[in-house]
Amino acid sequence: MRVAVYSNHTKESNKVTNQINQGLKENNIEIDDRAPDIVLTIGGDGTLLSAFHHYREQLEHVRFVGIHTGHLGFYTDWRDYEVDKLIDSLKQDNGQRVSYPLVDVDIKYTDGTKEHFVALNESTIKKIENTMVCDIYIKGQLFERFRGDGLCISTPTGSTGYNKSIGGAVIDPSLLGIQLGEIASINNRVFRTLGSPIIVGQDQYLDLKLRTVDQLIVSCDQYQAHGLNEKRLIDSIHYQISARQIYFARYRHTNFWERVDEAFIGGAK
Ligand code: NAP
Prior knowledge:
By secondary structure, the protein is α+β, with helices and mostly antiparallel strands. It has helices at about 10-25, 45-55, 85-90, 160-165, 255-265, and strands at about 1-5, 30, 40-45, 65-70, 80, 95-110, 115-120, 120-125, 130-140, 140-155, 175-185, 200, 205-210, 215-220, 225, 235-250. It has two domains: about 1-95 and about 250-265, 3-Layer(aba) Sandwich (Rossmann fold), CATH 3.40.50; about 100-245, Probable inorganic polyphosphate/atp-NAD kinase, domain 2 (Tumour Suppressor Smad4, Sandwich), CATH 2.60.200.30. NADP nicotinamide-adenine-dinucleotide phosphate binds near residues 49, 73, 158, 160 and 165.
């Protein structure tokens, strides 16, 4: 087994990285950052997202394991004081894994060029100045004309991220679908959208046909897929559940709803 260690290089993470590297060496587990079987991330959910993008060309072969140096995260099952237990689990690894869906993001520009991206949490499209206007198609059929600040298209595991902050539903990660959330839509007697998030299933797809093409930013997780310096203008964006998935090495079961409770409700009961 070849293991890569991917850290956010804070003081705490550097300490854990040293412990991990030592544990791997002592147990003759090969460290290989180029073509790993397992990627151990040390930091938070943000670090896992960053590692996902770093290894996105190798998703079919790689399994991720997240160690959180703070509170427990949504992609990070292990705490920094559990390094020994984790090394034991690596030694007993039998390829066990769990997969989660990703969203494909295909941007078509007005000059006919295209770009492909993939997101683990979400992709957002926002207009920096004035109102963004776009037609939303569900499986090729016009659903509504959106006017507002922007839209967020999230995966089930991304539903607890940005999606939640804009009033989206938290989705059980065993469900396959993508959620479309509105960011400050204009709703009055003249302009109307559904006004609530929608979730489409695995066999559906979304197309956003832009009616305003300037001052747009498109994100994929924490990265910009389209920034303000881009000269090309966006014609449309296609979103669908990706044929690819992210795999996590599942050495122990963690209950998703307990984690939601812990992260967002905690002692408030
Ligand atoms: P960031 O400031 O590094 O992270 C924002 C927070 O979101 C961090 O506390 C991070 O956890 C947490 N997070 C990331 N993925 C999550 C998930 N699936 N469920 C619950 N919490 C999650 O932001 P960034 O690096 O620019 O963007 C990373 C992600 O953060 C984005 O994909 C987005 O989902 C989320 N985000 C949310 C907001 C918002 O709610 N207004 C704004 C920006 C970004 P850790 O501390 O464990 O890393």
